[in-house]
Design brief:
single chain, 355 residues, eight-stranded mixed beta sheet, 3 helices, 10% helix, 49% strand, rod-shaped
Length: 355
């Protein structure tokens, strides 16, 4: 009993009562699916979110009344609209087809829809299921991260969609090996410097183009000097000593000769440092410049050094060695001829004594 002594019926009873009144069904005769068969069974309807869904019901000339229901709510009865949703419209009500359209479909529209007809005082029903597909969308992803070499990281990529999207992680840096995970979470333990770079999360479910987001992973490590060579330079010439080091963050460089630090602006010497190398330039090398130099590369994780020698390089003229078979010039031939003349008197004296 409701307010004011009136009988208040449950909403399901109201719907059933409305259907009986609509189709003039005698009391005690329920509306059942399967009392009769439609000329053509209805297939499930699949649409993407935001599109329009058309629900079609085949009828014949024996049908006297028709209606579309969503679960237990009447959408249309004949040409009369019973629902307040402006997105639901009547497309056709003919002797062969009774169809409605739901515009701008959303996920809450998904579910069963029933076409109910009255034929010779016998109700018939047919059900169709509306399936709403939703494009993938990444709703949560890790921010760019910085970690020291040897540390552990966990990357997260959460996506929504219908059907549920597939999540894949891929390392896209030059030294990458391709796909590294097929899960929402990517765990890397004992990370190395080669594993730094960008990681790409892809969410796909074949409803629309895959959605892609990226996370940058920076791996910090102490400096490592990769190239430093001693150099020979003649006195008075220009000389250059160079030291190359890889490090993250980028290394800071310092130059020393013995225990004395060399600084920019020092007379005759220029110190030039970039992200991955440092150069020491001597514009006019003197004897005092020769010796051992130390390049020090450092960042917040450590430092390393290397010794480089600037030594004197001399240029000497080499005289060709004239060995057997060598070609001699004319002056050397004349000298040999003159040297043989003084032997003639000795040869004559030797012949006289013999006889």
């Amino acid at each position: 009993m409701g307010l004011g002594g009136r009988l208040v019926l449950p909403w399901r009873c109201l719907v059933a009562l409305s259907l009986r009144l609509l189709f003039l069904v005698p009391a005690g005769v329920p509306v059942r699916s399967g009392d009769a068969t439609f000329p053509k069974a209805m297939d499930n309807v699949t649409v993407r979110q935001g599109e329009s869904a058309t629900l079609r019901c085949s009828v014949d000339n024996r049908v006297t009344r028709v209606a579309w229901l969503n679960r237990s709510s009447i959408l249309y009865a004949g040409n009369d609209k019973w629902c307040l949703d402006p997105r639901v419209v009547l497309l056709s009500n003919t002797k062969t087809q009774y169809s409605i359209q739901i515009q701008d479909v959303d996920v809450y529209d998904e579910g069963p829809y029933t076409c109910s007809v009255q034929t010779d005082n016998h109700p018939k029903t047919s059900r169709v299921h509306l399936i709403v597909q939703v494009s993938p969308k990444i709703v949560e992803i890790s921010s760019d991260i910085s970690v020291n070499e040897g540390g552990n990281i966990s990357l997260t990529c959460i996506a929504t969609g219908r059907p549920d999207p597939t999540i894949t992680w891929r390392h896209i840096s030059p030294k990458a090996v391709g796909f590294v995970s097929e899960d929402e979470y990517l765990e890397i333990t004992g990370i190395t410097r080669e594993q730094s770079g960008e990681y790409e999360c892809t969410a796909s479910n074949d409803v629309a183009a895959p959605v892609i987001r990226r996370v940058k992973v920076t791996v910090n490590y102490p400096p490592y000097i990769s190239d430093a060579k001693s150099t020979g330079v003649p006195v008075g010439q220009k000389g250059i000593l160079q030291c190359e080091a890889s490090a993250v963050p980028a290394a800071e460089f310092q130059w020393y000769k013995d225990d004395k630090r060399l600084v920019q602006g020092q007379k005759g010497v220029k110190v030039e440092s970039k992200a991955f190398f440092s150069r020491l330039t001597f514009f006019n090398v003197s004897e005092q410049d020769y010796g051992n130099y130390t390049c020090v590369a450092s960042n917040k994780l450590g430092n390393t050094n290397v010794s480089i020698i600037l030594y004197e390089e001399t240029t000497t003229a080499l005289t060709p060695w004239k060995g057997p078979g060598a070609v001699h010039d004319g002056n050397n031939g004349t000298s040999r001829r003159d040297g043989c003349i003084w032997l003639l008197p000795l040869l004559l004296l030797h012949l006289l004594l013999k006889f």
